[in-house]
Every structure is written in C-alpha cells, then in structure tokens.
Design brief:
Blueprint (H helix, E strand, L loop, with lengths): L12 H16 L9 H8 L3 H14 L2 E4 L3 E4 L4 E2 L7 H7 L4 E11 L3 H6 L8 E10 L2 E10 L16 H9 L5 E10 L2 H7 L6 E11 L2 E11 L3 E2 L1 E5 L8 E5 L4
Parallel strand pairs: 3-10
Antiparallel strand pairs: 1-2, 4-5, 5-6, 6-9, 7-8, 8-9, 11-12
C-alpha cells in the first residue's frame, strides 16, 4: 500500500488523509503554497468532502495549514521573529527580502483616551493624531497598527503620505529620531474588526505590542500593533542577573 493511498481498515479515513496532508505540508510543499481544493482531494483519494474537511480542520488547528477566506487553504508560512528594537516595519521587511506595503485605514485629529494622553504628556482633551494602518509583506496582511502621535512634536502628520515608513517620514520631515521606547507584549484573540483587516477568523491568535516611543525625552508615539500569531514569534536571549538591577535581554522580532 502506498503512503498516499487511503484504504478501509482500523485507522479512520480522515486520519489517513490527515497524515498525507501533513507530509505534503511538512516535506513536499514550500510555505505559503496552496493545497488542492476539498473537491479535488475528495476525488483524488475517494473520500467524502466531510472527511476532507475534518482532516484539513485538524491541520489548521495544529497550525500546519491556514485558510484564507475566498482564496483557499495554504501550507502555513514560517513564523518571523518580531523585532523588539526600534526599526521600521518597512526596513525590517526589506531586510528579510520581502516587499512591504501599507494600507491607510484612518487618520484624524481626535482626543485620545486618558492612557494615551498621559503617555504623550498632553493636557486633558488636547487632540492628537490618531492613525490606523495595515502592514503587509508580499501582499499578505501581517499587522494592524492603531496609534496616537503628539501634535507638539509631529504637527499636521495627516498632511503627509502615511503609506511609507513612518519613522523615516518623522526623521526626514520633522528632524525627529526616535531613540527610546517602552514596550509591553501580550496575546489575545482577534476581534471582528481586526480579524477582517488581517484576513483571519475572529478569535485568531494575535501577538500585541504596545509601544510608547520618544525622542530626546519627548514622547512622540503611543502605538499598539496586532501581529498575526500564525506568522510571528518572539525570540529572546535571557541572562541571569541580579533581580535588583532588573532583567537584561536582547530580542529578535517585528515593530510598528
């Protein structure tokens, strides 16, 4: 019997098909490749579409396959390390050999919530620039950014092209170089709006980064970024240190 045949026996057919598709995803197809449709798989292996759906669903749950609404099912892309140092998303993607792109979702002068007002050192009810963008690499949505920018440091930000590297724009236009940031990382499930922007299902795993960046002690940016958990991971090097001196680590991984 071939390893790519499905036969009647003690092992359920959906489990046999799952093993075939697992080999396909792990050994035969490069990351991001489409697999045959449910109809084609059912015809090729002589099983029902319910059986195909069960096998594919298990591999999606394991992270070996991913579904893209309206496009089909693909072998999972390898996760990228998220940069935890101050580097623009555009530069990061180009360094990886990917083509970066940005979709501007919203940009307006609004009064930020109290947490952002405090982070940016603004007065109560003082407006700031609210910016929402989707970041893509090779056409694939990777992250949603929602942030606030200080009008005292980068006024009239909405008058500029915000589909390019924001850090480069701030440096070239305002002469402001971001040199420090405090960042908090957590995990959460995608809400419906974020899931739609990223092309994933609601509840899908996300890595969330909230970063408050400054230049020469002046707060500039309060940005929260939602990265796809199926495409990103965080890798850190940890050294044993005196707890009183604080933890030391260096990290690899993505930024706004």
């Amino acid at each position: 019997m071939s390893r790519n045949e499905i036969v009647d026996g003690p092992k359920p057919k959906h489990a046999q098909l799952r093993d075939i598709l697992r080999r396909m995803a792990e050994q035969e197809l490069p990351p991001g490749s489409p697999i045959p449709s449910e109809r084609d798989l059912a015809q090729q292996y002589g099983v029902s579409r319910i059986t195909v759906r069960a096998a594919v669903g298990q591999l999606v749950a394991e992270g070996l396959l991913s579904r893209a609404k309206g496009r089909g099912t693909f072998t999972a892309r390898r996760r990228m390390d998220v940069q935890l140092y101050l580097e623009s998303f555009t530069d990061d993607m180009r360094r990886r050999g990917l083509t970066p792109a940005t979709e501007l979702v919203a940009c307006a002068e609004e009064v930020p919530p109290p947490e952002a007002t405090t982070a940016l050192g603004l007065l109560p009810h003082e407006p700031a620039c609210r910016l929402v963008r989707v970041r893509l690499a090779d056409g694939v949505p990777l992250a949603v950014e929602r942030g606030w920018y200080s009008p005292r440091v980068v006024p009239d930000l909405d008058r500029h092209d915000l589909t390019t590297s924001l850090y480069t724009l701030i440096a070239d236009t305002y002469g402001v170089q971001l040199d420090h940031a405090a960042q908090t990382v957590w995990a959460e499930g995608a809400d419906p709006e974020t899931a739609k922007l990223l092309g994933i299902r609601p509840g899908g795993a996300l890595l969330v980064f909230r970063r408050v960046s400054s230049s020469r002690g002046r707060p500039v940016e309060d940005m929260t970024s939602w990265y796809r958990g199926d495409l990103y991971q965080v890798t850190m090097q940890l050294d044993r240190t005196d707890p009183e001196s604080g933890p030391h680590h260096s990290a690899k991984g993505g930024t706004p």
